[in-house]
Amino acid sequence: MKDQLVEIVKGALEEISAAKTLEDIEGVRVRHTGKKSPLSVLIKSMKERTPEEKKELGPALNDARTEIHGRLEERLQEIEEAFDGAAEWVDVTAPGKKGPSGHLHPLTIVQRDIEDIFTSMGFEIADGPEVETEYYNFDAVNVPDNHPARDMQDTFWIETKSDEDRHVLRTHTSNVQVRAMQEKSDQGIKPPFRIIVPGRVFRQEATDASHEHTFHQFEALVVGEDVSVANFLHIAESFFSQFFGQDMKVRVRPSYFPFVEPGFEFDISCTICGGDGCSSCQQTGWIEVGGAGMVHQNVLEAGGYEKGVYTGFAWGFGLERLAMMKYRIDDIRHFHGGDVRFTRQF
Ligand code: FA5
Known about the structure:
- 41% of the residues lie in helices and 19% in strands.
- The protein has helices spanning 2-18, 22-33, 38-45, 51-88, 106-120, 134-137, 175-186, 229-244, 297-302, 319-327, 340-343; strands at 124-125, 131-133, 157-158, 167-169, 193-202, 214-224, 250-255, 260-269, 286-295, 311-318.
- The strands form two sheets. A seven-stranded mixed beta sheet has the order 1-5-6-10-9-8-7, with helices on both faces. A three-stranded antiparallel beta sheet has the order 2-4-3.
- The chain has eleven helices and ten strands.
- Bound molecules: adenosine-5'-[phenylalaninyl-phosphate].
């Protein structure tokens, strides 16, 4: 038994001395101190031995274990020190290695492009909460409780304790219209001003290739003394022409949004056929982009500006839909699908 122990220790110490790398030392450690190592098997077998044998062998086994562990530690340190020394020796002539770097998500790219164009036209960027009060999302923009227009935007309501404190996940970026105007009127700032509001919005949608439950909108709000639909058309055409890098036309069609009067939907000339008619635009030459209109006087009043003094226009369009047109993306669900084969293309 003692001879066996001497052999085990000898073998272990030899292997430890021969170890050259951290992997080697780990291998030796498992082989000679692990549960199935000869030393552990011997230690376990002590249970079956007589008290005399235990008395004689116990200290020897302990010594053997201490010696192997001590030498393992020592060798580990030697290897690490040797490794550190090597690491300090740097070949300064070796070419650098490029680390992997990420890139912007296509929606961020599009949002920044749009912000650049609008800020160059004198617009300021405003922001608002995604978890919004019922007031700013609906009432302030002229959509009172029980108004049928609330059905136009399937809403996620937040569970709240009382009915007075109702909150929603904002259904559109129009929630910032009154917030932004109040901030200005509270400081005594009078129109003219031009604001854009990019942001995430939420609707309880059954998703399909062009509908998401979580998407982005881009709101624009221009208020002044004699702002008209002609101003809207001019700014919209300048924006879309710069965004798509080609001459774009904008047309408006009558529509209804409670926060504008008159209200309209607006279309841009088809980016694929340039307005001649093709399968992408169902041969019409036009593609629907968003809603717009002249700001309702009730909304200006909620923003802190006396009715009948100022006029303005507002519009809101879907950021994903615009990105889809620009990059010819066939399904809106790719944006948040998390498939890097999609995002790596940008
Ligand atoms: C609105 O949200 C109005 N707040 C827009 C507006 C602003 C009108 C200012 C007048 C004045 P609408 O629900 O139509 O309107 O949405 C506007 C745009 O958001 C749509 O044209 C479309 O581009 C985009 N959109 C709407 N629903 C979805 C959806 N489920 N998925 C992706 N994009 C959507």
